[in-house]
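W.,

You were right to be curious about this one. When I first looked at the sequence I had no strong expectations either way, so I just let the prediction run and decided to look at it fresh. Below is the sequence, 127 residues in total, followed by the output.
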Amino acid sequence: MSETTFTISELAREFDLTPRAIRFYEDQGLLSPSRNGLQRIYSKKDRVHLKLIVRGKRLGLSLAESRDLIELYDPTSRNKKQLQAMLDAIDTSSTRLEQQLKDIQMMRDELFEARTRCLKALQENES
């Protein structure tokens, strides 16, 4: 019985990525496709790794953080170390996103105030 495999095009479609992005992850050592001539052949393990990368990206994890999680990934067990690393990464990402949200809200308020001052100055110039 042969293992299920995937082409770069199939994975690109499934995860809404470009083949170039997938090759980048391969260059970073996160994916290890076999080759059939020039064609890359991705395994189920590569697919899972790509899924973890995409999820990590969505959570705001850096590529290094995703790499750490991939290295801990063991599909046969959910060990304490793996779960704790995932919780730590989620907490770090959540803290970073909260700060970004505060920064965006502050910038929005400053832009609103600047717009109000500009409108007031414009009205004063028209008088």
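Here's what jumped out at me. The mean pLDDT is 89. And, maybe more interesting for your project: The beta strands are 34-36, 39-41.

Coffee later to discuss?

I.
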